[in-house]
Design a protein that fits this description.
The chain has about 260 residues and is α/β, with parallel strands linked by helices. It has 8 helices and 11 strands. It has 2 domains: about 5-105, Translation factors (Elongation Factor Tu (Ef-tu), domain 3, Beta Barrel), CATH 2.40.30.10; about 110-265, Nucleotide-binding domain of ferredoxin-NADP reductase (FNR) module (Rossmann fold, 3-Layer(aba) Sandwich).
């Protein structure tokens, strides 16, 4: 390979969540590729009319897979007029995908001091980084409770929902739930469809009016809570303002904060 910045990997599987809209892609992983849960990779494809040429189109995707797993998994929305995601969705097992050798990003649990409650708030494919974290034992060991909130439009967009809801039965997670049945609370929220036990509302509205805390049975206390935000820019902007008023702020100058934000757009 002439370019040392990336490796050529092979697609091993595609999972379609919503046809023509949401999908996951699994590829081989170079043994030298190391990352922290929550980081993202730059993923590349060649120009559309030169399938065998070096990659020239690159996009950032958070890893869904955990750092210890020997594959890489990415979760994506299809942007109909986009240059990249429609082609990514059409890849088949055996096709090539290029991955830059170095990961990026700072949405990682080492942004926070251990202990207290970890709130993982996501919209859409912003869920990706949190799945990597929750597949990593270090996350479960670092915090007292974990509250995962996934905001979508309709129930069909709740990718990975079945997996998350079955974690308490899986050997890798069972010990955490034995110690505390409420170790992980999963709150799926849809804005355009009523879900059992969940308000049909935007995530930011639920923060503002206190209903998110009621649903979680926990308070957004800046002394005890650490919050991650990952999703579309409008949600991030509104949520940051609401949480700043409550005393949440990113860390600075080596001092751990209680808020971390990733723009997933």
């Amino acid at each position: 390979m002439t370019d040392s910045k990336y490796t050529r990997q092979t697609v091993t599987g595609i999972h379609t969540w919503v046809p023509g809209k949401l999908f996951s892609l699994r590829v081989t992983r170079d043994p030298a590729f190391r990352f922290q849960a929550g980081q993202f990779a730059r993923v590349g494809l060649p120009a559309a009319d030169e399938p065998d040429a070096p990659p020239t189109i690159w996009r950032a995707y958070s890893m869904v897979s955990a750092p210890h797993e020997d594959w890489l998994e990415f979760y994506s929305i299809v942007v109909p007029e986009g240059l990249f995601s429609p082609r990514l969705a059409r890849l088949q097992p055996g096709d090539a995908l290029y991955i830059e050798k170095n990961p990026f990003g700072f949405l990682t649990i080492d942004r926070f001091a251990p202990g207290g409650d970890l709130w993982l708030l996501a919209t859409g494919t912003g869920l990706s980084a949190y799945l990597s974290m929750l597949r990593d034992p270090a996350t479960w060991q670092a915090f007292r409770r974990i509250i995962l909130v996934h905001g979508v439009r309709t129930a069909s967009e709740l990718a990975y929902r079945d997996e998350i809801q079955q974690w308490h039965k899986q050997p890798a997670y069972a010990s955490y739930f034995q110690q505390d049945p409420l170790k992980l609370l999963y709150l799926p929220i849809a804005t355009r469809e009523a879900l059992p036990g969940a308000p049909q509302e935007r995530l930011t509205t639920l923060i503002a009016d206190g209903r998110l805390e009621q649903l979680a049975g926990a308070s957004l206390d800046p002394q005890q809570s650490k919050i991650m935000l990952c999703g579309n820019p409008a949600m991030l902007s509104d949520a940051r303002k609401l949480l700043a008023e409550r005393g949440f702020a990113p860390g600075r100058r080596g001092i751990p904060g209680n808020l971390a934000v990733e723009n997933y757009w």
